[in-house]
Amino acid sequence: MDVLVINGPNLNTLGTREPDIYGATTLAVIEAGLVAQGAAAGLDVDTFQSNHEGAIVDRLHAASMDGTRFVIINPGAFTHTSIAIRDAFAAVALPFCEVHISNVHAREAFRQHSYLSDVAVGVMAGFGVFGYTMAMDFVIDRLKED
Ligand code: DQA
User: Fold this and answer.
1) Which of 63, 76, 94, 133 could cysteine-pair with 9, CB 3.0–4.6 Å?
2) What does pTM read for this prediction?
3) For residue 59, what pLDDT is reported?
4) Which of 81, 104, 107, 110 most suits a substitution to test ligand 1, by most atoms within 8 Å of the C-beta?
5) Under 8 Å between Cβ of 75 and 98
């Protein structure tokens, strides 16, 4: 495994969830695209979605032992609440990009703080699902240097 793509709560409902904000693309389509994008660059990509904070922490712990070299994460609402996910990234010392489909900085005040952004390599927000593609492009380039 080279790249792990994690999606947090409610992102399994993409496609029908508030399409005016999140668009019409399903998570399955996003994940398949990222797996293909990685494969074209010779990288193995795994995907994981959970609505449960502890399950995401557990998956990050497992990532430290399965050869994962980089994580792309849309933590959903856990972005704004989860010290546990922040601590998990510190515990496993894996680099990650934070992705948000919407521009969280242009939304409610509670979405404008992230527990992850200051420890992320980079943050994408507001580019729709294209943000995942851009993050993967970056990761492909970064991993070529290793
Ligand atoms: C989100 C933004 C979060 O504030 C929200 O809770 C989500 C999705 C995004 O992709 O824009 O679930 O991370």
Assistant:
1) 76
2) 0.98
3) 98
4) 104
5) yes
24 contacts: CB under 8 Å, gap ≥ 6: 15
* Residue 101 CA, ligand 1 centroid: distance in Å: 7
Task: Return the residue matching tokens 């994962």.
Answer: 68
Annotation says 52 is catalytic: no
Determine the distance separating the centroid of ligand 1 and the alpha carbon of 126, expressed in angstroms: 10
Active site residue 115: no
Q: What secondary structure does DSSP assign to 61-122, as a single string?
A: HHHTTTT--EEEEE-GGGGGT-HHHHHHHHHHT--EEEEESS-GGGS-GGGS--SSGGGSSE
What whole-number percentage of the chain has pLDDT above 90? 98
What's the token pair of residue 79? Answer: 């972005």
pLDDT tens readout for residues 85-144: 999 999 999 999 999 999 999 999 999 999 999 999 999 999 999 999 999 999 999 999
